[in-house]
Amino acid sequence: MNSLCVLFLLPFQLAGHATLIVVCHNWWYGRLIGRRLTDAVQLIHLALLVLMPFLFVPILWDQYPFVQLIGQYYSYLSLAGFGLLIIVTIVRYLRIVPSEVVCLGWEHLNPQSYLGHSGSGPGWRGRLAMIPGNDVLHPVLRRYELNLGSLDPLLNGLKILHISDFHFGKTPTREWYQAVMRMCGLESPDLVLFTGDLVDGLAQHDWIPSTLGHLSASSTSVGILGNHDTWYEPKMIERRLRNIGFQMVGGSVLQIQLRGKPICVMGNELPWRGSQPVVPEEFKNQFLIALCHSPDESTWAAQNGAQLIFSGHVHGGQIRIPLIGPVIMPSRYGRRFDSGWFRIGKSLLHVSCGLGGSQPVRWCCPPEVTMITLRGSGHDQSC
After folding, report:
1. Out of 29, 205, 222, 287, which residue is the most buried by the measure of CB atoms under 10 Å away?
2. What pTM was estimated for this model as a whole?
3. 101-375: CATH architecture
């Protein structure tokens, strides 16, 4: 292979190499349980991402014949990875939003108007959050209507607020989250659904009453925990949430009353905690909602009759590359359930981009909260 051909193929090989590493990372991250094992696998994938491109360097082929053999095979594999990237990206753009979903638009929330400052916090994280183009401090409120033909008339107009993945830490600050929750409370939701990953430290347990308390005081609130919560005293987090009025359904099924109608909510915190709950026979004819921290568990929820499924965990990727979309997605399905609405069998799945993240970086993927209004009749709008 001459040098001109090598240079021509190199960008495609590098893109394909990165694709293969990311696919492997996403697959493993969707299965890991322990924090140390998770961190170790991330470091391994980072090392492979940086070191394996040296296999493409012809100079090393001349000095080390075994490198040439491995490099040639991996070159072909990387080109196949580039082809995979193109195919997956095209399929993603061809994705059809379920016909029941009506997009009412979105609006920027402005917590800074409450605070009088950015809410970025101290240190390098705060400075990183302030870099132009970083959306981590600029949340949006997305609005949808769901046209569910079989909806009970008493539930028509019911407003559901889906929130997820706060990751309380140093950036954004507690005051920033308080301001966002105040603005959410002004929407007067009937039902608040939280799908996990609340804290990224023991010290942040104290943030719970002054943030989520703004919602639970006036709305029926139900939640589950996520994988990060299992690292920071999950039972204590559950207790604090219950103290402010949240009903926790991890690994269980709960019946609540809204507008005089029974609604069942079941929670799934796998693969990190608990088990898949069994829906009692007497609940199966009721309106059933499933909370799954990871969208990987959405198939289970659909098979168990959930009309609506709510998930988080993947953060929408946090960084979305123009034309390509999200890259790092901690799911065994890769980018299939990145964010927004999906149909799984007869169920509708909503995956939130979340409000926070362990790392204060978001590009073309702002933090979000979602307001969903249930309707019993069709509309002409589509998303």
Report:
1. 222
2. 0.91
3. 4-Layer Sandwich (3.60)
